[in-house]
């Protein structure tokens, strides 16, 4: 039965012709021979790091019958994402959105009240409750799946041994046939801008401010800068974003990005593009930031109560002992892996933010599952070209596949279909109609190449497009699928109709 399923999966993957250099795919069963424990105390798999990559890999490994230990230094599971990333930021984005809506939109829906105030400690407590419920939930999943959990700092001492300084002050050595490094990433610091997590904060500090800053300067107009800038902007901060590049979120489709920037500006966010920070002085009450044009020129000074450094993240391998066993990294410290997530040291694998690829929780999870499937002698598969990205602002911006700029650069002849939410009945009914759906499809075959959505719930809407891309669908395929009315999803159908033919409602 198991073999039949495996064969079916192989056939499915091959029939989808998913073999590109970005696809982690192999029919090799080479790792099978070193797979399972043979009655000793040794593990089949040791996972270092309990984030979305590591904890998912550990649970999947246990589900595949592999004896598994996960080592995590933080004291709680879930990694950056659950503790100081995805979850707390989405909690604050939601709470701050409620306040903003109450202040600016409720009255137009006929909902009025005499006073409105922010209880910041209560907002933070709601965020903390969400985090602790979820992290404890993962401990429960470990127990359910019989994953052994060691709380402490793991260091590689040989290709099959990890020494752990446990958080209770002890130490132990964990042995195993395969080691998966899932140690994630850390904030990238900027020279001359020392983070103190009080006045000059990373995302971690920005998630736990005890007061609403009057003026907030954000360095970097990427995911973190725009999400955390939105949180504090909605709660009343004056937010200025300083970005080195000529555009915000440089990886976004250009046309969508322009609309997105306009929307954020309407909400009060100010942007200083093509600008670099050259110095910071936090000796007084606030922070003074010296900036100059990216290409050089006159310097000016900005003042703020808090500065958020959100100029990217860097792989975290400090103290891990990669040199000790000779694991290779690239110039920026990412661990190099092959299509089976194996490093140059045969028993050592790596997944998630610590390897090249998008630094996203769902990508780390997919890496983790595929990696242990290979270790167990099965087939794993992750296609980095079809990993969706979502900026959880309001409206949200979600995308999958290629941007129009990338399609042009490839020299492919293409069609574009667009549909604005202004013409979508549900969006009009709820009076939240900013944004659009944009679909790019190959002219000759109509195969969808990329989908970009700006909408209040774009992060949910995008998955129809992800499935379409994964199954090599044409825009006509989406256009001919019945979509419920009235839903925002109808805008995806209409954009698909606009791609291969004509939309109805515009
Ligand atoms: C503010 C913020 C918001 C984000 N929002 C989103 C979002 O909405 N959606 C999204 O997809 N992504 C988001 N991300 C990115 C996401 O958090 C990461 O891509 C994801 O957490 C990577 O997972 P990982 O398992 O590779 O690493 P991590 O989550 O970083 O986990 C690695 C774990 O390893 C542990 N560790 C490291 N070294 C050792 C060692 N030697 N021994 C033991 N343990 C060790 C660390 O303590 C950590 O818990 C966000 C990030 C931030 C900072
Ligand atoms: N919604 C999500 O999925 C989500 C949310 C938060 C974080 N993340 C992940 O976390 C990672 C880190 O987020 P991030 O926002 O820090 O990085 P990012 O790579 O998204 O954006 C960093 C921005 O900073 C700019 N920059 C770099 N150096 C600069 C400098 N010296 N001065 C001014 N600007 C500078 C870059 O041009 C870029 O626009 C991202 O890779 C993202 O994948 C994802």
TrEMBL record:
Residues 44-368 form the FAD/NAD(P)-binding domain. Residues 387-496 form the Pyridine nucleotide-disulphide oxidoreductase dimerisation domain. NAD(+) binds at residues 220-227, 243, 312. FAD binds at residues 90, 154, 183-185, 353, 359-362. It is found in: Mitochondrion. One of its GO terms (molecular function) is flavin adenine dinucleotide binding. Pfam families: Pyr_redox_2, Pyr_redox_dim. InterPro entries: Class-I_Pyr_Nuc-Dis_Oxidored, FAD/NAD-bd_sf, FAD/NAD-binding_dom, FAD/NAD-linked_Rdtase_dimer_sf, Lipoamide_DH, Pyr_nuc-diS_OxRdtase, Pyr_nucl-diS_OxRdtase_dimer, Pyr_OxRdtase_I_AS. It comes from Senna tora. Binds 1 FAD per subunit. The keyword Oxidoreductase applies. Its cofactor is FAD. Keywords: Disulfide bond, FAD, Flavoprotein, Mitochondrion, NAD, Nucleotide-binding, Oxidoreductase, Redox-active center. This is Dihydrolipoyl dehydrogenase 1, mitochondrial. GO terms for biological process: 2-oxoglutarate metabolic process. Disulfide bonds join 81-86. The active site is at 485 (proton acceptor). One of its GO terms (cellular component) is mitochondrion. Belongs to the class-I pyridine nucleotide-disulfide oxidoreductase family.
């Amino acid at each position: 039965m198991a073999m039949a399923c495996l064969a079916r999966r192989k056939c499915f993957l091959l029939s989808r012709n998913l073999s590109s250099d970005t696809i982690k795919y192999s029919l090799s069963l080479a790792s099978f021979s070193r797979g399972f424990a043979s009655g000793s105390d040794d593990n089949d798999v040791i996972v270092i790091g309990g984030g979305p990559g590591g904890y998912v890999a550990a649970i999947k490994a246990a589900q595949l019958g592999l004896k598994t230990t996960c080592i995590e230094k933080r004291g709680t599971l879930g990694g950056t994402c659950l503790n100081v990333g995805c979850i707390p930021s989405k909690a604050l984005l939601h709470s701050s959105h409620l306040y903003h809506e109450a202040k600016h939109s409720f009255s137009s829906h006929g909902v009025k009240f005499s006073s409105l105030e922010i209880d910041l400690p209560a907002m933070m407590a709601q965020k903390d409750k969400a985090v602790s419920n979820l992290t404890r939930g993962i401990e429960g999943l470990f127990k359910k799946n019989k994953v052994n959990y060691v709380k402490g700092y793991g260091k590689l001492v040989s290709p099959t041994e990890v020494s752990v300084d446990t958080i209770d002050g002890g130490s132990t050595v964990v042995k195993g046939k395969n080691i998966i490094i899932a140690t994630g990433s850390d904030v990238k610091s900027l020279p001359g801008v020392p983070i103190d997590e009080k006045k000059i904060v990373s995302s971690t500090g920005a998630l736990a401010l005890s007061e609403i800053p009057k003026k907030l300067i954000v360095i970097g107009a990427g995911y973190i800068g725009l999400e955390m800038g939105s949180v504090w902007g909605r709660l009343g901060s004056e937010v200025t974003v300083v970005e080195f590049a000529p555009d915000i979120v440089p990886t976004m489709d250009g046309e969508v990005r322009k609309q997105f920037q306009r929307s954020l500006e309407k909400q009060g966010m100010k942007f200083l593009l093509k600008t670099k920070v050259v110095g910071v002085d936090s000796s007084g009450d606030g922070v003074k930031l010296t900036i100059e044009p990216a290409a050089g020129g006159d310097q000016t000074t900005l003042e703020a109560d808090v500065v958020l450094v959100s100029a990217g993240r860097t792989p975290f391998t400090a103290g891990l002992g990669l040199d000790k066993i000779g694991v290779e990294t690239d110039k920026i410290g990412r661990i190099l892996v092959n299509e089976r997530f194996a490093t140059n040291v045969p028993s050592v694998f790596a997944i998630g933010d610590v390897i090249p690829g998008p630094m996203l929780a769902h990508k780390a999870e997919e890496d983790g599952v595929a990696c242990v499937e290979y270790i167990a002698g099965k087939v794993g598969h992750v296609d980095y070209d079809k990993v969706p990205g979502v900026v959880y602002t309001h409206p949200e911006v979600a995308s999958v596949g290629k941007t129009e700029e990338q399609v042009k650069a490839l020299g492919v002849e293409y069609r574009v279909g667009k549909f604005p939410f202004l013409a979508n009945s549900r969006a009009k009914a709820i009076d939240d109609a900013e944004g659009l759906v944009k679909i790019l499809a190959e002219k000759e075959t109509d195969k969808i190449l990329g989908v970009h959505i700006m909408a209040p719930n774009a992060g949910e809407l995008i998955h129809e497009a992800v499935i379409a891309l994964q199954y090599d669908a044409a825009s006509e395929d989406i256009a001919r699928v019945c979509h419920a009315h009235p839903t925002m999803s109808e805008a995806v159908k209409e954009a698909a109709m606009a791609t291969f033919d004509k939309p109805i409602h515009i």
